[in-house]
Design brief:
The structure holds two protein chains of two kinds.
Chain A (H helix, E strand, L loop, with lengths): L5 E9 L5 E10 L4 E5 L6 H8 L9 E4 L2 E2 L9 H4 E4 L3 H4 L5 H11 L4 H15 L14 H13 L5 E5 L7 H13 L3 E5 L3 H7 L2 E6 L2 E7 H6 L1 H6 L6 H4 L3
Parallel strand pairs in A: 3-8, 3-9, 6-7, 7-8
Antiparallel strand pairs in A: 1-2, 1-4, 4-5, 9-10
Chain B lengths: L6 H8 L33 H16 L4 H18 L3 H19 L2 H4 L4 E5 L2 E4 H27 L2 H10 L4 H30 L8 H31 L16 H28 L1
Antiparallel strand pairs in B: 1-2
Helix pairs in contact in B: 2-6, 2-7, 2-10, 3-6, 3-10, 4-6, 7-8, 8-9
Chain lengths: 246, 285
């Protein structure tokens, strides 16, 4: 319990119209863990990420992220630099005129010196393999490159936790493979909301199944994704790689 | 006709759409907005703050000119500046023609609406000498200011110019709104093109009639809703990266003798024009 990087209990979140997206969930994530958050559309995956990143208002009895109790004082505003969120659509995330400026945006807002910002940008660009694209306009890049720039923007903030919302969505095979390789090399604690079970199997060790805002299952990814009746009950299917081994 | 043979182009051709070759700077997949290539501008290396200040002063001086002859000289000087500093004629020349077309709407009726010494008659309409003079003055001033604006736009990215303006005292919030608004023109343009393809794919042809207007109304409403939705996401993305309301850069602005020389020239030349204009008014009235 003490070692967990995320400790959440009785978390609830509702939309502005009163519709509940998360119903009283409890969650514990250990440092360095890679956890797949799976579930049908509207299960509450994105809402959970928005809560962890401190971007929406929520109710909880415990909400500790990377040693910070978000329920105390103004601590919620620190959460974005502890838990960085990769949005579903990279176009939502990229708004600066060059790749370099976009990656520098987060560290600048963290109040780092220019030398530190440049160093962080350099490391992040290298990590995602986009050194040669540093002066390009982000919205003129391909979908895969945009996703990597958006990821570099998070890495440059040096967060403790990466929240990746459908990272492989809209990516072709090559871009998807390159993203998987980047994620596997990365040692951050990762929460990956995805419908791409094959990618989840390659990048995560644990899976949490969400449906209608509740945690329906939590365990080793291979166990959960091989459970045909559980997946069927929640409108999902066993991935092909596990089907053949069943 | 096609410069890249990819599935998007193939799909559009299947739908009977005309695909224009993309500019070199825009060949990167998803961009539809034709951005100026500021790398070709000779003013690209100057600190954006002094560029914004210099051009703004020049535009202000042009706006105060009172005589058509000096305004024509002002336009000539602005055009010279544009030609010398930014040789990307392919970008700015068509825009100058569009500006001329826009200005003609205002200046063509002016000679007939301004009282004064009759220059010529056209049916019941009488054109006055004073009206013609006013037309030339408005036309030259408008063109000169637009030409200077094009030279400024071509000299830096819009982001740098906005940052320069913020550096000169423009409130950061207004600058941020301007920049983000500009950035999303591109996304809205993409959205519009996607919707147009979706309409055509289902056999829609624009024509006069209630059904067509209804479709256009739905399309516009959908675009507004999508724009709102996107603005919400961008707002969250900005918050997620700790934005504190001020856009800052990793580049440190520097003022060197080049900035000083540029600003001096941009102050001196319009000042000369204003002095000449003042002299002309005194000696010819």
């Amino acid at each position: 319990m003490i070692n967990s990087i995320i400790t959440i209990s009785e978390l609830s979140h509702s939309y502005a119209d009163g519709t509940k997206s998360i119903h009283c969930i409890n969650l514990q994530i250990n440092p360095g863990e890679s956890v797949a958050i799976i579930g049908p559309n509207g299960a509450g995956k994105t809402s959970l990420f928005l809560c962890i990143a401190g971007l929406v208002t929520f109710k909880a009895s415990t909400f500790n992220i990377s040693g910070i109790n978000a329920l105390e004082g103004n601590n919620k505003s620190i959460l974005p630099s502890k838990a960085a969120l990769l949005f579903q659509d990279s176009d939502d995330q990229l708004f600066c005129p060059t790749v370099e400026e976009d990656i520098a945006f987060g560290p600048i807002n963290q109040g780092l010196s220019k030398a530190e910002v440049k160093q962080r940008v350099e490391i992040a660009l290298e990590e995602v393999g986009l050194i040669e694209k540093r002066n390009k306009v982000p919205h003129q890049l391909s979908g895969g490159e945009k996703r990597r720039v958006a990821l570099a923007g998070l890495l440059s903030m040096n967060p403790d936790i990466l929240l990746l919302d459908e990272p492989s969505q809209f990516l072709d095979h090559r871009s998807r493979r390159s993203l998987i390789n980047i994620l596997n090399k990365n040692n951050h604690t990762k929460l990956i909301a995805t419908h791409d079970f094959e990618m989840a199997l390659e990048t995560c060790t644990r899976a949490i199944l969400l449906d209608q805002g509740k945690i329906e299952a939590d365990g080793a990814i291979k166990t959960i994704l091989a459970d045909e009746s559980l997946l069927k009950k929640h409108g999902m299917e066993v991935p092909h790689s596990l089907k053949s081994s069943i | 006709m096609l410069i890249k043979h990819n599935h998007k182009v193939q799909f559009a051709v299947t739908l009977g759409m005309q695909i224009k070759p993309l500019r070199e700077s825009n060949q990167g997949m998803t961009s539809t907005f034709d951005y100026p290539d500021h790398r070709t501008s000779k003013l690209k290396g100057l600190d954006a703050r002094w560029k914004v200040a210099g051009f703004f002063i020049a535009m202000l001086c042009i706006a105060f000119l009172k005589t058509s002859t000096i305004a024509v000289i002002g336009f000539g000087a602005s055009l010279m500046l544009l030609v010398c500093t930014w040789p990307d004629f392919g970008w700015w020349l068509p825009r100058i023609f569009w500006i001329i077309a826009g200005l003609l709407v205002f200046i063509l009726p002016t000679p007939f609406l301004t009282p004064g010494e009759t220059l010529f008659e056209w049916g019941i309409l009488k054109a006055s000498k004073e009206g013609l003079d006013t037309s030339v003055l408005i036309f030259s001033r408008g063109l000169a200011i637009s030409t200077l604006a094009l030279a400024l736009i071509g000299s830096s990215t819009i982001y740098d110019l906005v940052r320069g303006a913020i550096g000169l005292g423009l409130p950061s919030k207004i600058g941020s709104i301007f920049w983000l608004g500009f950035r999303h023109l591109d996304l809205l343009s993409n959205e519009f093109k996607r919707m147009r393809i979706a309409l055509r794919a289902r056999g829609y042809k624009i024509k006069s009639g209630f059904g067509s207007y209804k479709t256009i109304a739905w399309l516009s409403a959908n675009m507004l809703v999508r724009a709102f939705d996107r603005s919400e996401h961008v707002g969250l993305a900005i918050k997620a990266r700790g934005f504190n309301g001020v856009f800052t850069s990793i580049e440190t602005p520097k003022t060197t003798w080049r900035e000083f020389a540029f600003l001096s020239a941009m102050l001196l030349l319009p000042a000369c024009l204003l002095a000449l204009d003042f002299w002309w008014v005194i000696n010819h009235d």
